[in-house]
Amino acid sequence: MAERAALEELVKLQGERVRGLKQQKASAELIEEEVAKLLKLKAQLGPDESKQKFVLKTPKGTRDYSPRQMAVREKVFDIIIRCFKRHGAEVIDTPVFELKETLMGKYGEDSKLIYDLKDQGGELLSLRYDLTVPFARYLAMNKLTNIKRYHIAKVYRRDNPAMTRGRYREFYQCDFDIAGNFDPMIPDAECLKIMCEILSSLQIGDFLVKVNDRRILDGMFAICGVSDSKFRTICSSVDKLDKVTTQAVLLQTPAQAGEEPLGVGSVAAGGRYDGLVGMFDPKGRKVPCVGLSIGVERIFSIVEQRLEALEEKIRTTETQVLVASAQKKLLEERLKLVSELWDAGIKAELLYKKNPKLLNQLQYCEEAGIPLVAIIGEQELKDGVIKLRSVTSREEVREVAEDLKSGQNRAFNFYYGTTPFSYKAQEA
Amino acid sequence: MAERAALEELVKLQGERVRGLKQQKASAELIEEEVAKLLKLKAQLGPDESKQKFVLKTPKGTRDYSPRQMAVREKVFDIIIRCFKRHGAEVIDTPVFELKETLMGKYGEDSKLIYDLKDQGGELLSLRYDLTVPFARYLAMNKLTNIKRYHIAKVYRRDNPAMTRGRYREFYQCDFDIAGNFDPMIPDAECLKIMCEILSSLQIGDFLVKVNDRRILDGMFAICGVSDSKFRTICSSVDKLDKVTTQAVLLQTPAQAGEEPLGVGSVAAGGRYDGLVGMFDPKGRKVPCVGLSIGVERIFSIVEQRLEALEEKIRTTETQVLVASAQKKLLEERLKLVSELWDAGIKAELLYKKNPKLLNQLQYCEEAGIPLVAIIGEQELKDGVIKLRSVTSREEVREVAEDLKSGQNRAFNFYYGTTPFSYKAQEA
């Protein structure tokens, strides 16, 4: 394999040389000569027998979340959800796909970015493009005229992804919307407040909120003498202009707000959509709505980059104690203890080995950031105690087995209370 | 509309009469006569003008989650996630769709149930059918040989839905899997333990765990003289037999376990899949795996039914206090206070009305289950205090405004501590 790797490297270098010569407009003879060399090397290399049958990748514009990325995601979601709940929102969920006709005529030119499902018989379906249209469908279908809800879910757009900047084809939206007939601007103001609260709590730096009301634009167009027939086209042009220069927000709704932290582009947007629900209602009854959407993917990128820069160690499990043994043939005893700890609600693990070495068990704790190890040995079993050791400080206490099992263990509770483990060890 | 409803009922009844006569093989004349009556009634009814342009529904086999259903879902997930974390699992997520070829050849006959996406140019994609194959792809792609992870997400099957029994085309799976080379049966035993812990915590009644090892069946077949060529077919027949009689578990994996609470069918299943990761690895390197999957949709159904039977009132928001006013023209003061409460981390709401009536504000609290109302009036503003009232007991205390805003309010803290609000009111 080492030989193959060397050959592959040679092919690569020779390919670069050929490209270089072509760029420099070298003589045809020289290029031909070098191409011949390249072909010879490629022939030597032959087909890669080890090449896998499957392309091992996620679809274009999508990604897996590793445990570390999930930790970031849960942290961000936690902040956002806490804010939405603080503002009294209920929560709903809708299917990942809708009837194709539900989405049709809602997104203008962007409709071409909708993922359709294959017609395998039955209904024609499309993946949701945002959470707003499914929300409007939900309101009309359930004849709701009044709700304040949030919805956090993935949406799908066949766009050109720019994943390094947090732009994906499958991405999360965190939406908060207020539907109902209310006095002007009160729900709108709350949406702005929510945006500010969330972006402040996330500590991703300074941000700028742009507030606009399309009726101002309407008035300017009227003064300029724009005819009704040209109105939509001009709006669309202004919209694009804005997107190109500042990557800001949608201009399709009467009122709106966008956020633009330095160098990141828009991470939140919102506005009114008073006509959408009426499009679904059989009698065209309108339900005025206002809402906001947080673009969390960009926020994930920022937080991930910050954590990487800090080289901060993030735990991806919450295990409190590893059940270990110092001698061989104690698998059953380890299983018994770990099982009793689980039943007592304690987060515990054991190595899936019959006779693991104590050193390996301690190393596992250090790698996984597990703070405590409960060690069983012949002597401890005889005495009816368990040795509880702090992995970092290496301090040890011998605890009555029954106490540990019942979750009433004092050292354990000390550790997970406000007092560090060492305090108990000194006291003992 | 009442007239129309009556006519519709008549059409329905006449239709039933015609069908009945046909079944009884009545005379042709009689049937003709009744069909004529039916057609006349239908003509009278005419087309339904109020019929909406859109079919207002979710796709077949899918559903929305209302705030109430979300409360059930979050409660169930919380129990399951706490258990998975107690066992030291990390968490991952994968895209909702995979390359079509990733799923191909993994599900045998069931492949016909996979949702494909329409070919809109680019890669051919399919919605995930379970979380196991994406997990195996994730392991191979990242060259992981050792991980314990959980994954809770929706999967998609073009199956015949039986939604009343919790069978959907879009449904959640809660998977816990242990991948790696370990000593025999230790991770398998933990998977069984996890199933039991979860089903016990959910308090959905007694359950039966069926444990099996397909190698026993292999041995029986060998003794019976089953040839290698017939082996797969016979396994498949036995598999179906089992499904028909007990709705139990998959028989495709060497070892397995299924759960069957009385009258509900299987709500969990699991087993080993030692060969799957190797199917993705370019060099066929195997990563032995064992895991379990909780079928939460059925559990949601059970819990929802139980709650309905109990007529238990479930709060769908967490709002702690409504900011209200007793007089008109206090919108700004209400907005100022609610804003300060939000900044102090208190869950608060206000009505989106300029001048709401106090009665309406109190009614809103009762409907939404909000326990406290902070009332601002002219006098309170002068005195720099806020009247804090318990909605149920109607007890009132006057609190210094600054204390309430800073979140340091004693009555408020008492209420949300262990002591009920009335305690503070008596003490005051």
TrEMBL record, chains A, B:
This enzyme catalyses:
tRNA(His) + L-histidine + ATP = L-histidyl-tRNA(His) + AMP + diphosphate + H(+)
Mention one GO biological process in which this protein takes part, according to its record: mitochondrial translation
Residues covered by the Aminoacyl-transfer RNA synthetases class-II family profile domain: 37-303
| CDD domains, per the entry | HisRS-like_core, HisRS_anticodon, HisRS_RNA
Which chain positions lie within coiled-coil regions?
300-327
List, alphabetically, the Gene3D superfamilies matched.
Answer: Anticodon-binding domain, Bira Bifunctional Protein, Domain 2, S15/NS1, RNA-binding
Query: What GO cellular-component annotations does this UniProt entry give?
Result: cytosol; mitochondrion
Q: InterPro entries from the entry?
A: aa-tRNA-synth_II, aa-tRNA-synth_II/BPL/LPL, Anticodon-bd, Anticodon-bd_dom_sf, HisRS-like_core, HisRS/HisZ, HisRS_anticodon, uS15_NS1_RNA-bd_sf
Q: Where in the cell is it found?
A: Cytoplasm
Please list the GO terms describing molecular function: ATP binding; histidine-tRNA ligase activity; identical protein binding; RNA binding
Instruction: Give the protein family.
Output: Belongs to the class-II aminoacyl-tRNA synthetase family.
What is this protein's record name? Histidine--tRNA ligase, cytoplasmic
Which gene produces this protein?
HARS1
